[in-house]
Amino acid sequence: MSKRWKATWVLCAVAACGLSVAWPLQDPERISAAAAVVSAVIALFGVLSGWASRAGRSRAPSSSRQVAEAAEALARTVRRQWEDEATLRQLYDPEPLPVVWSDCSDPGVSDHRRLVGTAVVCRADDPQQLAAAFGALARRRLVVLGPAGSGKTTFAVLLLLALLRTRSDGDPVPVLFSLSSFDPARESAGTWLRRRVAVDYPALADTENYGAGVIEDLLTEHRLIPVLDGLDELPEQRRAAALASLNDTVPAHTPLVLTCRTDDYVRAVAESGILTGAAVLEPAPVRAGDALALLKLATPPGPRQRGWNALAEHLDHQPQAPAAQALTSPLMVALARSVYADNDNDPAELADTRRFPTAADIERHLLDALIPTLYGRARRQHPGCSWDPRQAHRHLAWFAAGLHAQGTYDLMWWQLYRWTPALAGPWRRAGTWALVTCLGLLLTTSLLVAVLDVPSWSEGLQWYPLSAMEALINVPVLGIGGLIAVRERSLARTAAVAALLSLSGGLAALPAALYYYHGLFGPVLVAAIGFVCFSLWLCMLGAGGLPSPPRMPSRSRPARRGRSRQLIRALVIVAGVAAISETVFAGYTFAGYETALPTGTVPWGLTIGAAVGAGLAALDWVRGPSTADEVATASSSVQADRLISLISGAACAVVFNIPDGIMRAVVSWSPYNPLRTTVFAAVIGLFHGGFLGAGVALPAHSWPHYTLARLILAARGRLPWRLQAFLADAHRLGILRRVGPVYQFRHARLQHHLATRPRLPAPRAGRRPDRPRPVRTPFG
Description:
Blueprint lengths: L2 H20 L5 H26 L10 H25 L11 E4 L9 H4 L4 E3 L3 H9 L5 E4 L7 H14 L7 E6 L10 H12 L6 H4 L3 H7 L3 E6 L6 H14 L6 E4 L2 H11 L6 E5 L4 H11 L6 H13 L4 H5 L3 H12 L17 H23 L7 H18 L14 H4 L1 H26 L5 H5 L1 H9 L2 H14 L6 H15 L1 H7 L6 H21 L19 H28 L13 H19 L11 H34 L6 H24 L4 H14 L7 H11 L2 E4 L2 E4 L2 H9 L24
Parallel strand pairs: 3-6, 3-7, 4-5, 5-6
Antiparallel strand pairs: 1-2, 1-7, 8-9
């Protein structure tokens, strides 16, 4: 039994004894029931702490069979993931661009030939040649260099698919990761890689089938080939440190693929040294004839071929024309296909040297035309189910400006709250959540006052200021929690930090308690404040973390296998908590204290314990690891985090509101109108306690912050109301790409162009067009 588990039980016992001694001294006839219920909740937390500590116990390591099964399942998942992505990116439609890759001419960026292996020359459109060239390397380590738009990421995806298609049982599995989320100052490359595998492929968290150490075993036994894309996407000051961390924490014989822009890699190597044992490739420029041949194949036969023929004739007469220079870049070839080959636009306009005097002008033209062309085509195909091109361009430009301002390429939905001034800082976030809680409490109070038979109008009005004062509990809890969470997220100290936050919440509840108890000081007031503190502590630990946005979203979800085992486990939890609750409740009755709850056939201890136990069983069920062979996407991660957020919020609301409602009912009991006053106070207390408990539990997850930020930004016109549908549509059209749960623009050049290009508003009738306006960033 761990120290934290023992300390929790000792604290529960002390709190139970304190309630048993202090509360009945005041008014045994009315307080005994509340003490019984709160004692049941304390017993519940003892069960909860034992369940939570289960996650920290060591489990048996993965067997060889489990590691092999995990590798095969991962290979299927990765291949399905990137086959779909290659289809969206049109990498094989009609065929890959025949870019030739060979050893880098700069001898200072690669290791000794003896450590690297034979010289490498391969074509990107030949999968067999790609797989053979990589397999011929001595350590199967490769660095892919090239200027912006040279097809480095495309080469990495083609190599990954080639290795998967030629893979035999037992061969390592290539897995692609974006390096933009790696911070070498916070974690090592090995730690970051293990975390990314766990986050992007949650099926490997199935400890029942694969064991607890399967990710570590996959990496240690060289059953994974990390394909790390975009060293240049890291801030400049991190690149050399990231390269050094790869050398220091990833064994030198581990297969590895790394992509980076040439100039950035040369500077990083000058500071930290080469990547040990890695060959270094760079591409040859694309020939204009190969580019035009591919573009003609991508265009349906017929009149639309005439534009390409006219452009080809122009390039035959002027081989150094701006169009010929532009088409040496794989990125420009891909953009030309999207703008011309898949649409009715005429590519012959690229031969107009007066309109496009330089290759940069053609590049800007293609980038400008990409979004209107793709969304215009989608709207023609599906008039009622597509986005307006100008509106879509505005939203994407806003995203690009925000990413550019933050110095990142990753569009992470769980970080969207940082883009919203009302949620960016801890105290602003605390005030916003307090306002939301206050509005919910006031709305609930208004509905209940209107629906229930309120004893008197003045008694109904007293609940409105109480609602506002109770909402202040969230301010210190979320504000201080946000400050502490920046520095401390360790599970070992969560209980201590939660105790500090619950104490601050209890002090913030003092004005509401004084108002509710009519300014009376004494043991009842102290017990009420102590109850609030303890309930807040329960809610924070029950929610699984401090009330501040986590670094990553929750990846747990209801287990899809072993449902009978999950059902038995849930029944055991509910029965155990109900039995504890009924035992404590019967103990008070046996001791001679009459209960304020109605006597009769209703077993109150079993009823209350079963309700609270059901909440605990729901938490236990939803936090089981996913067992499906799937990859985490933005949509699936939003759904998983939303589910655990809602169930955690509901369970913590049960933990808080049942004793809170009964306590209010007991204290508000009136001998002149006992039934009406007690019922009204109990119902108000149930809803108020539910809001307060959920208000502490929900901010511990990503989805509530994301939802609040999305609604605020959509109301301001910055984002569409159906944000995930919009992002998925942009991904389907090829404007965005997806790596796990993260979206990125298809190329950094497109993001930079959208972020810095002036936005031309639609001209109004009878007026001259407005001057170009720069895109406002989310922070300006």
